[in-house]
Amino acid sequence: MEGMSDAHRTDVTTAVEQLAWTMARKMLQLEPDAGPRSDLPDADVRQMWLAALTSLLAIRDSAEVLAASAALSAAQRGADYPAIGDAAGMTRQGARRKWPGLAGLSDERQRKLRWWSRRGDQFIQCVRAVLATSEEGPRLAALRERLDDIEQSSPAQRIDAFDMALVDAHTVAVGAPAPAGPTAERASGLLAALTADAYAAMSSHSSLVVREDLVCGTDGCPSEPIVELWRPDFGDRPVPACREHAVEALRQPATRIVAAHQPDVALSVFAEAHPAH
Ligand SMILES: [Zn+2]
Question: Of these four, 47, 68, 76, 165, which has the most CB atoms within 10 Å of its CB?
């Protein structure tokens, strides 16, 4: 491994050895200063070394898990495979085999940060409007908790808190019963459009969402679908819709945008269907 001197390596070995014996003594419920002394019976010393062996392998397993997590966090902040391989003392290909899926995470994180800096305030306002106008239930309670999490989290953790809030917001916006009254209806519809837009803007796989065979769900319409809509009477399956038919459908109560094929599309379609007063 690059970047670690022999002296530091010796320090690591000493620290790991101390940790292993601390754990071994805990496993055997021994005094804090107990160790494999030569005046002890062989059977006792044997137990100590076996416990030390168990501890050392547990430390190795934990280090593997923590190393994977460190590689992930580094990748999210811009480390590429050559840099991760360098730090891990392996080739770029070796690092990719050991921790696949880390390429592009930095881009995804940047996309998330960009979306939240553009839309974060609107999202939070919209969640508050839904919380204020909808009937209380377990889904809303979960979403309320997420808002608290966002407000209490450190800047470094905020992206994760936002991710969780999006999942809950999507569940509320799509699964909640049709809200009573136009204000509640508008808030829920906008929340659905916002979450659809967030996923369209953040996902690195948005191109995979667009299937070649997809056409507008309205009979005989030849136009290209740009969003997917859901209404309680559709059952489980969202229906693809072109812009014109999406706007028309969204003017019906309880219709929601559940996915968008491009960023910004969900919000512009929603705004056309529900012009601000
Ligand atoms: Zn159409």
Answer: 165
